[in-house]
Automatic annotation (TrEMBL):
PANTHER family documented for this protein: ALTERED INHERITANCE OF MITOCHONDRIA PROTEIN 24, MITOCHONDRIAL
Lineage, broadest ranks: Bacteria, Bacillati, Actinomycetota, Actinomycetes, Kitasatosporales
Name assigned to this protein: AIM24 family protein
Species of origin: Streptomyces tremellae
InterPro entries: AIM24, AIM24_sf, Trp_RNA-bd_attenuator-like_dom
Length: 227
């Protein structure tokens, strides 16, 4: 009886390199020679023979500006089997890049194929608003990427009109790197409570491309104007 009750939660047959198991878990089909970079500590289960290398030397220099904790926040996964990843119940969004690119907030990167090209880059045009600016992870090539979102995200198509799309940077997950980005000063209602000045800003996107926004703000509030 118990097995019948739990049967609906069993893994589905493998259909792709990466796919969702429910809304909050990622299933990765691992194979020899197809290594994966994943957020450190995101492994929740695996089948088969899979090895993990935290803070791999090959990525230390690339990720030196990825300020999301002590050390490099990714691990290298290799081997054969099924790997399950999650990030504290956050929704998982799977993307299959086909020779294109995506720019991702570092705290929203869950996993990506190790053969993809990637780097940590400063978002142009924002340093004067945020002091040291915003560092994002840009991933390009042909392969699989998994992102996380605090709740079900909305994907905004910026190419539908001539108006700019404004996003609270603390709710931003990812965007098409070909979009033009600039900052706009504003007053954030939530920051008016307490001792904060309330001064913040939004990111304005224009051009042809997509922006992924989560319904829950990043608690680090990494882009508040200070001084």
């Amino acid at each position: 009886m118990t097995e019948q009750q739990l049967a609906g939660f069993a893994p589905t047959p493998i259909a792709a390199r990466m796919e969702n198991h429910g809304h909050t878990m990622l299933k990765v089909a691992m194979a020899s020679g197809q290594d994966l970079y994943a957020r450190t500590g995101s492994m929740v289960a695996y089948e088969g023979f899979i090895q993990y290398e935290p803070n791999p030397p090959s990525v230390r220099h690339i990720a030196e500006h990825w300020v999301t904790g002590e050390g490099t926040p990714i691990m290298k996964c290799s081997g054969d089997g099924l790997l399950y990843l999650a990030d504290y119940g956050a929704h998982v969004v799977v993307i299959n890049l086909n020779g294109d690119a995506i720019s991702v907030n570092g705290s929203n990167v869950l996993a990506f194929d190790a053969h993809l090209q990637w780097g940590v880059e400063r978002v142009r045009g924002l340093a004067k608003f945020a002091g040291q600016g915003l560092w994002n992870v840009q991933i390009s090539g042909t392969g699989w990427v998994a992102l996380t979102s605090r709740g079900t995200p909305v994907v905004v198509d910026c190419g539908r009109g001539e108006d700019e799309t404004y996003v609270d940077p603390d709710a931003l997950v990812a965007w098409s790197p070909n979009l033009k980005v600039k900052g706009k000063r504003s007053f954030k209602a939530g920051a008016l409570i307490g001792r904060g000045s309330g001064e913040a800003y939004q990111m304005a996107f224009s051009g042809q491309g997509l922006v992924v926004v989560q319904p829950s703000e990043d608690s680090t509030d990494r882009l508040r104007v200070r001084g």
